[in-house]
Known about the structure:
alpha/beta
Amino acid sequence: MDGTHSFVSILRSQALWNPERVIYTFLIDGEEDGPQLTYRALHNRASEIGVGLSAVAAPGERCILAFPPGLSFIEALFGVFYSGLIAVPTEMPLRRVAVDRFQAIAGDCSPSIVLTSRDGLAILRDRPGIADAWPTARWFAAEDLVARDRPSVPAEVASEQIAMIQYTSGSTERPKGVVLSHGNLIANSACIQRAGGQ
């Protein structure tokens, strides 16, 4: 990973040089191979989402990601990276404790955007305590963010630029956000790679 400074530059490069290589496989029930994403497919979908987000929000604004398990979360996360927004991943707030956590996170990070799936949008917008957690946020389904006649992304991303805010579980106290730069994510991945002997 030497010479790289963000997952944006890595994905863009790999989509060019190894387009059909599978990068993610979703395991059904944690065991059986399910849907897959190649570098090209992930880059194309993330670009669409990134362009869509760039049309409705400015770089540096916060975007909460609330998705059920699956590859749609990966596509959305990279789409946020491509747009220059700051990703704030959280679980789908279906249980009461998850609703409380969502409210605490939204109140702390002041999101401009809440991004989910179409099914998630239908469920969450009418769920008590969710839509009013941060009433100025705009809600979008990732499937509806399609790039049409707009410039492609990504722009260059600096290693010191904030990539995401990762919140603690909030099981013992109010969730606390940890700010992670693109450089932090690359460094952590490099440590995992070295530990795995690859």
